[in-house]
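Hello, quick one for you while I still have it in my head. A protein chain has come my way and I'm curious about its shape. I'm sending you its amino acid sequence along with the backbone structure tokens. I'd be grateful if you could look everything over and explain what you see. Here's the protein in full, and shout if anything looks odd to you:
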Amino acid sequence: MPLAKKLIKEGHQVYGSTTSPNKLSDLESKGITPFIIDIDQENNGLATFLESDVLVINIPSKNKNGFQRLISAIEQSALRKVVFVSSTSVYPNTNGVVTEETETIPSPLREVEQLFTSNTDIQATILRFGGLFGYDRKPGNFFKPNSIIDHPEGYVTMIHQDDCIGIIQDIISQKVWNETFNACSTSHPTRREYYLNEAKKVGRTDIAFNEQSENQYKIVSNQKLKDVLNYNFKHDDLMD
């Protein structure tokens, strides 16, 4: 929704999908042309929905069959440019730096990525986002009361909503296709530093850490994204 609103403000026509009929009026009230689209079902409106220049896919489904159905519909349309929002969770904990060249973990999400990147009819750019925060998503509230957080000396990988939107806009405007990018803030404070700081912001004092847990982690490099897009993060210091 925030991405759609930003694109509309810049003069673009935006189609928006939902699986819930009761959200149609909400989309329409924001200036979005609404569609009921569920990739796990047959969709009568999918052909019209795909009468677009760019498709941004950011949905929780990891159903490979559903995505194969979507790709078949794309192949039958004139649309060829796709931004697929993935996650840095595709990387293993290496206790070191991971880049786009690092071997990934076999997973349903990775299989869906490959459906797009291996299809020569589609120009897909994969965005592997870190953990999302910003506005109503406050990391200090990510844990239940009296939580004990593992890996306190491991490192966090996060990205602000503003940067998610800015990066997607830059990919579209710069026409950067057939790429894979890690998208996260440059700073990687420890989980202890970060969550104590975030808990303080929301007035919480009940967060504790498992000092016996192994400090497994990965440090996700965003250097390729900065080099290719020349992108300047709006929220690059997670402790600021």
